[in-house]
Design brief:
CATH class of the largest domain: Alpha Beta
CATH topology of the largest domain: D-amino Acid Aminotransferase, Chain A, domain 2
Structural class: alpha+beta
Largest sheet: 9 strands, mixed
Distance between the termini: 33 Å
CATH superfamily of the largest domain: D-amino Acid Aminotransferase, subunit A, domain 2
Number of strands: 15
Low-confidence stretches: none
Number of domains: 2
Strand content: 25-35%
Helix content: 25-40%
Radius of gyration: 19 Å
Shape: globular
Number of helices: 8
Bound molecules: pyridoxal-5'-phosphate
Order of helices and strands: EEHEEHHEEHEHEEEEHEHEEEH
């Protein structure tokens, strides 16, 4: 059983979604995963902005931000550490793909326990593998944190070895895109680099934060096109998401990397300062 602490569906405590909801049938919606620390959501404004932009791109009327914030506070207040998952679906809509002309979106806010990862992941780095499942290229969906996650489900099912923390995914053209639940960064010749996401992948909140932090630290930071062969020339590799923050990568399959490298460490320290100051 998935240990959900508390759930609000359209503002009402509930545990069941109506069977007609398009989230179930088509993954017709999007989601946000927000870290909660000391009763406050981290990077709330950024999550709300991405949710809003995703709704515009999918043609789903975005929920009122004041309403979402009110529901969020009902759940996160007094929680020391938790994960808040927000799902917005297009709502009910009968059988068939055709979206309803006047959708009535569903809001689901669910509070989950904070996942415990070994301290060593952050401190000494993680081991990752390269997945065989590929990400399809589709600029129409690229960057959006939509609910269609079958590619990640299949990729995550590829390994059972608990010493492997994450899997890297390539797209159908063979370019590196991201991890199954993280964005990927390389440091090469002192430059902070992350895959371009114009064809597929999720434009992560932590990716955005890291890119801004790097630029503030006068580190050259750019998006680009990389293949697994480029990993060999990386001085440092790290992964990001809203929950883990920054995980240094110490090993990709058989290849070892310094972890954390100096730039990864600098960014980790800077992120910790931002997080403890609760900057949006
Ligand atoms: C496929 C995928 N890419 C990237 C990310 C990182 O996104 P964020 O930094 O917003 O947590 C996630 C997070 O769940 C993800 O599922």
């Amino acid at each position: 059983m998935i240990p959900v602490v508390e759930t609000l569906i359209d503002g009402v405590p509930a545990a069941c979604l109506p069977l007609a909801d398009r989230a179930i049938h088509y993954g017709d919606g999007l989601f946000e995963t927000v870290a909660v620390r000391d009763g406050r959501p981290e990077f709330w404004e950024r999550h709300m902005r991405r949710l809003q932009q995703g709704c515009v791109r999918l043609g789903i009327p975005a929920p009122d931000s004041g309403c979402l914030a009110g529901e969020m506070w009902r759940l996160v207040r007094h929680r020391r550490r938790a994960v808040l998952k927000i799902i917005v679906s297009r709502g009910g809509g009968g059988r068939g793909y055709r979206p309803p002309e006047e959708p009535a979106p569903t809001r689901i806010l669910a509070l989950h326990p904070w996942p415990e990862w070994p301290d060593t992941y952050m401190r000494d780095g993680v081991t990752v593998r390269i997945c065989t499942t590929r990400l399809g290229r589709n600029p129409r969906l690229a960057g959006i944190k939509h609910l269609n996650r079958l590619e990640q489900v299949l990729a995550r099912g590829e390994w059972h070895d608990r010493s492997i923390a994450e899997g890297l995914m390539l797209d159908t053209a063979g370019e590196l895109v991201e991890g199954t639940t993280t964005n990927l960064f390389l440091v090469r010749k002192g430059r902070v680099q992350t895959p371009d996401l114009s064809q597929c992948g999720v434009a992560g909140i932590m990716r955005e934060v890291v890119m801004e932090m790097a630029r503030e630290q006068d580190l050259p930071c750019e998006t680009g096109h990389f293949t697994p062969a480029d990993l060999a020339s990386a001085e440092e590799i790290f992964l990001t998401n809203s929950l883990v923050g920054i995980w240094p990568v110490r090993r990709v399959d058989a290849e070892e990397f310094p972890a954390p490298g100096p730039i990864t460490l600098l960014l980790q320290n800077h992120l910790e300062k931002i997080r403890s100051g609760f900057s949006p």
